[in-house]
Amino acid sequence: MYFVIYIPLIRKVGSLGYRHNPYAVFFADQYTPLILFHLDKNLEVKAAEGLLSYKKLVKKIPQSLLKVALSSIVITACGDPSKSARYRKIAEKYGKVVSVPEHLVAWNFPHQIHARKEVTHAHKILKTYLLMKRDLELLLKYERISVLVGKPKKKVMFLFKASINDTKPKLLSTAHFHLPSRKTLKTRIWAQGVVITIWPIVLENRIMFKLTGKENKLRKARKASSMYLTYLRNIYRVVGCQSQAKLT
Q1: SS3 171
Q2: What CATH number is given for 143-247 in this structure?
Q3: What is the pTM assigned to this prediction?
């Protein structure tokens, strides 16, 4: 079970002043949202809504989110968790909280997938976490990161060696190849370990980065791989023991 809690950035709401409007969504699995919780500024429940065919469950749901969170993996989206006030507020209330980068959520899942925007955003956060959790397990097992970068007719794959504690991945090899541009593709290339891409290359079920600037392909690949290692370490600090248990 997954419990996604999100505190939006402060926004102005007419004459009411500035508001966060935090909310949380309880998922039975990676596909099924059950309950949408509307929260106050102290992350206490103001209202709860049943979703899909589970509306009858709302009356039975405890008003304390702590009871729900204790039986679930708690996930949120924010900036750097070591500097994020939103992350600290959630962690103080629920203990171990997994954070995923807010910009990766926006880059990789731009489309509306539920009628309720809160549920849509929570589902995007969950999907980002699941992809990153899989990549964390691949990194621990293979210690390889493959980065695909380039333009529609000139694509390069850089293969790096990196462990979970590395800050600067080591380049192992470079490969040039051709892929149809601007299409979502199944991964049928000779990449190893973790596979990420840099826009405009998009692969199915792979994390994509959007990097601006006029840096060359190798520098962009190094930058993306270093950033992704940092993000995976943040998850590893919370769920690392579970990942290692699965690999043994």
Answers
A1: strand
A2: 3.30.420
A3: 0.85
